[in-house]
Amino acid sequence: MSMHSSAARRAILLTLSGIAAIPASAATTPTFSKDVAPVLFKNCSGCHRPGEIGPMPLLNYSQARPWAKSIRAAVATGTMPPWHAKAERGTFSNDRRLTTQERETIIAWADGGAPQGDPKDMPPAPAFVDGWEIGKPDVVLAMEKPFTVPASGTIEYQYIQIPTNFTEDKWIQAVEARPGARTVVHHVLVFASEPGSARAKKPFTAVIPEITPEIRKKFAEQEKKNPTTHRDPGSLVATYAPGSNAQVFEPGSAMRIKAGAVLTLQLHYTANGKATDDTSTVGLIFAKQPPVNEIKSDAFLNPLLTLPAGAQDTAVDAGIRFDEDVHVTAIFPHTHVRGKSWEYRMIYPDGRKEVVLAVPRYDFNWQTYYTFATPLAVPKGARLESTAHYDNAASNPANPDPKVEVHWGDQTWQEMQYTGITYTVDRVAKTPAQSVGGR
To answer: What residues contact 160, with CB distance under 8 A and at least 6 apart?
Structure first.
């Protein structure tokens, strides 16, 4: 035994006693300063910082250390960072999932006692603009006065207009709808309308449900019951919903808001037991150079859904046919608390079918615009079909009342089958903007 070093002798003794020797590399526990902080700064701090949706900030060791076990559990199960689409990595540009190495680093750190390490190894904390995900907006458009959300009761959708006062067309590189009081704001949809101008024709037609005279009659009946179902305040510009992100368009692509446009905020408020004032805002960043592609945003839906009382799995379809060649840049699935999964299929003119988005674990609390890393090239005549599945059974812990038949409605205890979609139309002339900034 004299030929062995002390480390080798120790390894042999551990083996003889039934304990496997641990390689030096495996015994090295990651530290917060050197290994964990870069992962949190890259993937978590956008939400986990003061004033954002994360329940606690994770910007330094003293903030993260008390939550080490919880962070480990959320990362190990894939609960955090929240991501619900089933797709190969790289399919979506906003994929929040950690890499295998990042996940293993956090787990090993927590399992090893969550050490701080040398504070000198800490990377600089990410710089954020207070209150804005997109950075400092070029323009912030706000409600002229607060809306007081009562402590109780049902609040109908509010439609509040904000003039832009733009004297020329503006090209928007990033847009963020921001609630003033998150505790009572369920969603904000931002629309733009230009005085005296007709809305441009959509490059697609609804085919599921097919717009027949009978369907139009049903739509009219639905409209009487729920007047906001088909209200059209203009072109969709931005969306805020629980867990959603701001929209930042790739260089060379931008959304146009025309001169004299008026923004309309569709606000869905939910009482929480305390009267609360809300002043929601919209932040815009102008494109720094003339865009090549004009981003359009719209939606399609099926307002005729029926969910039988107690039914555990009801499928509801909706679909559109493209009347022009387009590139689809993002898809936004939306249901309320009974929604449990989504699937989107593209059916091409030659009969080929492709699942372009699958969300097997839809989560109402984390609603996402799934943004394609490479926009989908969609030829004229192709169809985009969606299927949402709903759980109206008592086994669904989020179900407000499994004893009732559920139909389309604005309130969270009702349901929706709604899809937001952003795209560019190939036929649109690539005309540089006359102006890219200023007001």
So the answer is: 143, 147, 264, 265, 267
